[in-house]
Amino acid sequence: MRLDKFLKVSRIIKRRSVAKEVADKGRISINGRPAKSGTDVKIGDELLIAFGSKDLTIRVDDIKETTRKDEADDMFTVISENYREDKEKDNL
């Protein structure tokens, strides 16, 4: 399954267009390699997603074409969630 579609179906990112934009800006890596929106995601892959001030690492547990909201959490496991310090705060 395409990376952008997985992020939308699993509800990690709400809209596929936003998931595509984030991936194409180089803010997502799969198993340590930079990934674009069309990169295939497989069960067992580890995704590192760089949100604004947070890095989210997840493992893909299941792939479904569609899912209900209560089933979306079963598609992945959160491995770590790290918050980065803002560099501007350090300069104050």
Automatic annotation (TrEMBL):
**Does the record bear Disulfide bond in its keywords?**
no
Q: Which GO terms describe its molecular function?
A: ribosomal large subunit binding; rRNA binding; tRNA binding
| Annotated CDD domains | S4
Residues crossing the lipid bilayer are: none
Q: Name any one Pfam family assigned in the record.
A: S4
Q: Answer yes or no on keyword Protein biosynthesis.
A: yes
According to the entry, every stretch annotated as the RNA-binding S4 domain falls at 1-57
Report any one BP term from Gene Ontology.
rescue of stalled ribosome
InterPro entries reported in the protein's UniProt record: RqcP, S4_RNA-bd, S4_RNA-bd_sf
Q: Which UniProt keywords apply?
A: Protein biosynthesis, RNA-binding, rRNA-binding, tRNA-binding
What is the protein's quaternary organization?
Associates with stalled 50S ribosomal subunits. Binds to RqcH, 23S rRNA and the P-site tRNA. Does not require RqcH for association with 50S subunits.
Q: What does this protein do?
A: Key component of the ribosome quality control system (RQC), a ribosome-associated complex that mediates the extraction of incompletely synthesized nascent chains from stalled ribosomes and their subsequent degradation. RqcH recruits Ala-charged tRNA, and with RqcP directs the elongation of stalled nascent chains on 50S ribosomal subunits, leading to non-templated C-terminal alanine extensions (Ala tail). The Ala tail promotes nascent chain degradation. RqcP is associated with the translocation-like movement of the peptidyl-tRNA from the A-site into the P-site.
Give the record's family classification.
Belongs to the RqcP family.
User: Can you name this protein?
Assistant: RQC P-site tRNA stabilizing factor
